[in-house]
Amino acid sequence: MENSEGVKIESTVVTEEPLISALDIALFVVIITVAYFWYFKRDKQSSSSEKKPYTIQPSSLSSIEQTSNSSFIKKLKSTGRSLVVFYGSQTGTAEEFAGRIAKEGARYKMKGMVADPEECDMADLVEMKEIQKSLAIFCIATYGEGDPTDNAMDFYEWLQNGDADLEGLNYAVFGLGNKTYEHYNEIAIYIDQRLEELGATRVHEIGLGDDDANIEDDFVSWKEKLWESVCSHYGIEETGEESNIRQYKLVDCSEVLPERIFSGEISRLKSYENQRFPFDVKNPYLSKIAVNRELHKSGDRSCMHIEFDIDGSKMRYDTGDHVAVYPKNSSELVDKIGELLNADLDAVFSLLNTDEESSKKHPFPCPCTYRTALTYYLDITSNPRTHIMKELIEYASDPKDQEKLKLMASSTPEGTKEFHEWILRDNRNIVHILEDLPSVKPDLDHLCELLPRLQCRYYSISSSPKVYPKSIHITAVLVNYTTPTNRVNKGVATNLLAQLIPTNDELPQPTIPIYIRRSQFRLPPKSQTPIIMIGPGTGLAPFRGFIQERDYARKEGREIGEMVLYFGCRKKDEDFIYENELQEYVANGTLTKLHLAFSRDQPEKKYVTHLLEQNADELWNIIGEKSGHLYVCGDARSMAKDVHSIIVKVVMEKGQMTNSQALNYVKKMEQQKRYSADVWS
What we know:
Mean pLDDT: 89
Distance between the termini: 106 Å
Number of strands: 23
CATH topology of the largest domain: Rossmann fold
Cofactor: FAD; FMN
GO biological process, one term: response to hormone
Radius of gyration: 31 Å
Low-confidence stretches: 1-20, 36-68
Subcellular location: Endoplasmic reticulum membrane
Shape: globular
Number of helices: 22
Strand content: 15-25%
Main location: endoplasmic reticulum
């Protein structure tokens, strides 16, 4: 048989195969489907990437992005840089210092970049030697009880556990700490020593900044000597050129859709409208104020008891934890800046990093209005640092104002004296400076770049989750004071909280963003362990939670150990906070003893430290003979130090030890978490 084309076909063929089989059709469908999704996914990604200048970079990146972005070495090499400045920062100061160093590097022909160790593969430090005349600088804060900051934790652990060969790495370290705390600059000192142990070369001796004195002076003095050491080490000279290059450029966002504009959110756009668990520093919970009542009975001061409603939030806290409160600046101060600079505060703008390699695209959530930036994102009430004085010089049209700013920006003895007196002693903020130097009219976008970020405020939680699982209590004194220039400065957070009074009607209740910060300030694991609590004033706050928790255990039928509280205030009839509660705990046996010191109810002032000395036998009986725990909460500058000295003295006398033995005993108590402090300066 032949077909029409003359091709011979075997007659033995039973069936004829179709040109396209079922398998072919299936494969074709799969290919088309894959191509369809690939095309439209790519199109979607392309569309979203066009909007990136108007969004904050996400906190969590894909694995591919993390791999490429974490290599700071690749960034240094690809952009011809030799200087990298890492920061370990909890409040933003270390990050600010790092930025200033990186910027100044240009004066020494060292192009610099700022890097967050949390976003970097710090093992790449071993490759720094491959970059000619390279230098790594570390601006590191010590936080809490001698802990690294959150963003430096991984780097700290890498140094502790690793044994990398860092020969060829040149480095310098500046620490940020506070001498009123026992573990002064402990993390910076460790990093400085550990880098040397691993073979790195210290280009300049460590600098230790003391925030209890003047950390700005400490930093500027160290920085000047740092560059002298750098010039000597690398055989280079200062170019003499002042680097006033802006880190961020202004982007007009007047055409951006309203739904793409930030209105006070910390990180994620519309995060307060669409709350998502878990809640943390970048994703706070918008809590309702359930209770806000006055604790003082009389007098011209105010102390507030505030309860945050966390019902339904899935947030959990432990007794002794802290709660972070996100404040906002007063509209009066914000409006004043707009008035002084003749600026449209409702204009929408964005600040975009001029360094395309930087992982930090914006200094704060952008785009937003100037009003939003000044209200929620920028610190306009603290004393500006000297580098801001320097940046304001070019905006002064009056020679006298210009000379004053130049003087304060300098590191001369005269300049330092003027800065101390005019800024620090007189307690001027940026609003006061603009008022008192009327010819200084900075561009508002540049001012927004210069001002530090507004930080959240931390409060010791004054409740127990056993008793109040659906609310968090705090105890806060309203901060208001008159400065030497007769201005009234107001605490940003406490004055905001004072206005948030819940109502009994159908109106929406006031809200404020919060999150919980874990603490090491904990009750003993066993409820039978005796404890002594020393907490004058609002230092009582965490102990209110401790007492509630022990009272809860007692009511459940569990045995509880002795609880001794030392509390002090000015006058019994004025500021004895939570008096009725404490007396009730004494009456029901939860609180074994309540020692009270009212400093101004008698001719001679009496403080809790006086009572401690008088009760040396009781003190030694609990911490020495019964291995109890001792807790201190309050002022670190004087009270906590005095308590520590008294404890050492009592251990010496009652424990029959030498001074050295007593110090070691107290040190061991601290290591065993039997002596804990939650203090502030």
